[in-house]
Amino acid sequence: MTRGISDERSLVKLLWNRGFAVMRAPASGSSTKMARPDIIAGNSNRNLQYAIEVKTTHDEVLYIARESINQLVEFAERFGCQPIVALKFKSRLKSWIFIQPQQLMITPAQNYKTTCPEAQRIGIDFKTLIGEGKQLKLVP
Which of 28, 77, 101, 103 is the 20 to 30 A CA-CA neighbour of 87? Predict the structure, then answer.
């Protein structure tokens, strides 16, 4: 099992255990021509529905292909949910950070990127994502 699949499954389990209906799309991203996120999750009681693209790295900077973000946004628009990028900077943080695609920086090659400090500054934590709290700031 690859690292990415393991991280996706871990996030699926976290969401499921907090009352979300959740599904991992095994053929997501660049492996298909159809726009598919890594995870679809929703909780009707909280009126929260997400299309989630999962990205992890051991580095300080995380790069994301333009096509991955374009597919995420396209799927979310068609499905009627919010697109979210779930980030994990494994060398620095144990927890997930969640950001909206438009919060990512655009590289000169028209791809996307973020750094760990920037993601901490602009992102939200898991409890805020699932509607169990209002986070004012992620940075300790």
Answer: 77
Question: Domains of the chain (ranges plus CATH)?
Answer: 3-129 (3.40.1350.10)
For β-strands 82-89 and 48-57, DSSP reports them as: parallel
Q: Which residues are catalytic?
A: 28
Q: At 49, list the tokens.
A: 């529905």
Alpha helix (H) residue ranges in the chain = 3-17, 66-79, 116-122, 126-129
Write phi, then psi, for 112 (nearest 5 degrees): -125, 155
Write the pLDDT tens digit of every residue in 122-137: 999 999 999 987 765 5
pTM of the model: 0.88
